[in-house]
Specification:
about 325 residues, mainly alpha, Rossmann fold, Tyrosyl-Transfer RNA Synthetase, two-stranded parallel ribbon, 13 helices, binds tryptophanyl-5'AMP
Length: about 325
Amino acid sequence: MEQPVKKQRILSGIQPSGTPTLGNYLGAIRNWKLLEDQYDCLYMVADLHTITVRQEPSLLRARSLQTMALLLAVGLDPEKSILFLQSHVPQHSQMSWLLSCYTYMGEMSRMTQFKDKSRRHAENVNCGLFTYPILMAGDILLYQANLVPVGNDQTQHVEICRDIAARFNSVYGNVFTLPEGYNPKVGARVMSLQEPTRKMSKSDAEDSFISMLDTPDAIRRKFRRAVTDSEARIAFDPANKPGVSNLLSILSALTDESLDSLVERFGGKGYGDLKSAVAEATVETLAPFQQEFNRLMADKAYLQSVCRTGAERAGRLAERTLSKCMKKIGFLAP
Ligand code: TYM
C-alpha cells in the first residue's frame, strides 16, 4: 500500500495586543487559511509576547479570546489545524530559556523591531523586549515548523530563528528543522492610513488602522481621512506616493485585481473614488467574518473547548522537542 506523504508543518502566531487589523488579515491570517489544507498547521494567539509592553489584565484576557474567535471566524478549522493560546503551553517559556543561552546579545541588539519599540516605549525597555525574538524562535522550533507565514515585519525574526537553530544543530546534531519565512505577494506590508511610511499596527492611534471588527461607517470614515498627497494623480509609486500606493495595494490584495489594472481603471479619477472603492471592498470582505465572530463570542464554552483541545495537542508536540533538547544539552531526565 502506498504510504501517505507526510505534510510539511506550519507554525504562525498573532499577538492579542489589540483587535487584529486589516494588515494582520492581508499579511498573515488570510494565508493561514489558504495553506490549511496543504500543510499540517499550528496557529497560536501569542499572548506571552504581549507583556513586553504593559497590558491591562482584563483587556488582555478579553483580547485573547477575541483573537481566537476571529481566527475561527475567518474560517480556520480547529479539526484541521491546531489553534491554541501560547501561555497554555508552558514549553514555550521553557524553550525560550534554553535558546537564550545559544543567542548572542549582539544578534538581539540588531533587531529593527527592538530598536523601534525601545524608542517608542523608552520608559519600559525591559529584558523581554530585548529577548522577544528568542521566545518567537522557540515557538517555531518547538513544532519543527518548515514554513512560517508572516508579514514582512516578521521576516528578520524568522531569519534569526534559523540562525539560532543552525547554531544549536551544529553543537548537538540535527535537533531542529530550519524554517522558511513565507510572505504574501500583495499585502505583506499594509501601511498606516495616517502615516503611510509606517506599517499599520493594532497598537497605534485609532484612525491609522482598520480593525477587523470596525463597523462599515468607521471603515468608510477612516479611508476617507486616509493621508494621500496633493498631486491628485493615481499611480503606484510607494517611495513618492506612499498613501495612494497603500490604498492601491490594499484594493489589489482584497480584490485580486493587479496593480497595473487598478491604475489603468482609476486613471483620470479622483482620490475620493479610490478611497470609496477600497472602503467598499473592505466592508464586503469583513462583513461575513464579523457576523461569524458575533455568533462565536456568544458561545464562550465552545471557544474555551477549542483552546483546551488545541493546547493539549500542541503541548504533546512541544514536549517531544523540548525533552529531546534537554537530553541533548545534558539535563538528567526527571
Ligand atoms: P503581530 O501580532 O504583530 O502580527 C501578526 C501577523 O500579522 C502580520 N502583520 C502585518 N502584515 C502586513 N501588514 C501589516 N501592517 C502587518 N502588521 C502585522 C505580522 O507580520 C504577523 O505575521 N511576533 C509576532 C507573533 C508571533 C509569531 C510567532 C509569528 C509570535 N510567535 C511565531 C510567527 C511565528 C507578532 O508580533 O505578530
